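seq:
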Amino acid sequence: MANKQVNLVLLVDDNETDNFISKRIIELTKFSPRIVVKNSGKSALEHLQQVQNQPEELPDVIFLDINMPIVDGFVFLSDFESLANSIKDKAKIVVLSSSNNKRDIGRIVESEHVIKFITKPLTEKSLSEIKQILAEDN
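struct:
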């Protein structure tokens, strides 16, 4: 099956260095032509609510860090559940974290919206795996 085109990615991480590295690998591999970066779960949720009626501005993939201040990955996922169906139907979440806590990982992958857990940093191989998952999901 042909790879699903990823038109827009939302990177959600409070670490600027991690965002820079992730953005660069997405650009270099041509995983997605558009990347929006938010440095907190709160600003990412606000962004999604602002663009909920603009399908072309909704991300196909959200790369979500777990460990962030105030609105962490768990709170983000909980709040994501209450967003409009237009967002939840389109955006697939990939948890991108430096955490290797098995309990955290187990808790986060239980969400129906999470399609994969990746340990930082993002790599060409992991992006290829995500494309495969998205292609199978169609």
